[in-house]
Amino acid sequence: MATHTSPSAGILSDEHRPQRAEIVAMLTKAYWMEIETVMSYIANSVNPDGVRAQEVVESLRLDIQEELGHAQQFAARIKELYGIVPGSLEFSPEQTYLQPPEEQTDVVHIVKGVIEAETGAIEYYNRIIKATEGIDPVTDDMMISILRDEEGHRRLFEGFLREYQANGLA
Ligand SMILES: [Fe+2]
Ligand SMILES: [Fe+2]
Fold first, then answer.
1. 78 C-alpha to center of ligand 2: Å?
2. Which of 21, 98, 155, 161 is the most buried (most CB within 10 A)?
3. 104 CB-near residues (< 8 Å, 6+ apart)
4. pLDDT at 65 over 70
5. What phi and psi values does residue 95 have, to the nearest 5 degrees?
6. Are 114 and 98 in contact, with CB atoms under 8 Å apart?
7. From CA 83, how far away is CA 90, in angstroms rounded?
8. C-alpha angle 116/120/92, rounded to 5°?
9. 23 CA distance to ligand 2 centroid (A)?
10. Please, which residues have CB less than 5 A from ligand 1, an ion?
């Protein structure tokens, strides 16, 4: 793919072409996960009714920008690794657990859905970190800092759930 001499070391070297393709595929999946999370968080930051929903709605509103930033970072890294950021027709949704609840006051449903989404991201990003360790330090570093964001999101919503459980609401 590279038209000039490729670097002799690192993930951009000819020798690492197969690993590069593998990392691009993983980043592409991660990109779609973030895009779907943005969609789900927008809906769930607008739909809920009630006093109890307000904290959750505000947190989701802030998270949307962070998740969007993650998607943009993944897209940029895909390009740097000679991949192509896919078009929207390649998207297929997976977040069954983050669909709008029957009742728009059902905040617990949303909190549990967010925890599931963040857990999925944490698990998958840990896999990418393993796959890039010692091979692609730049992607590795990026993933570690994004993983920290996701762990923070998960911890926050876990705290919301604890409160609902303590109050017998979940
Ligand atoms: Fe994210
Ligand atoms: Fe997140």
1. 20
2. 98
3. 47, 48, 49, 50
4. yes
5. -85, 65
6. yes
7. 15
8. 100
9. 20
10. 34, 67, 70
How many Å separate Cα 170 from the centre of its chain?
25
Ligand 2 centroid to 154 CA: how many Å?
A: 7
The first and second tokens of residue 77, run together, are: 């890294």
Query: CA 124 to CA 102: how far, in whole Å?
Result: 29
CA distances from 137 to 2, 11, 28, 152 (A): 20, 8, 18, 23
How far is the CA of 8 from the CAs of 30, 81, 128, in angstroms? Answer: 28, 15, 23
State the distance from the centre of ligand 1 to the C-alpha of 14, rounded, in angstroms.
Answer: 31
Higher pLDDT residue, 99 or 1?
99
Cα-to-centroid distance, 32 and ligand 2 (Å): 13
Residue 10: the pLDDT is: 95
**Percentage helix, strand, coil for the chain under 3-state DSSP, each rounded to 5:** 70, 0, 30
pTM: 0.95
Query: Which residue bears the tokens 């449903």?
Result: 109
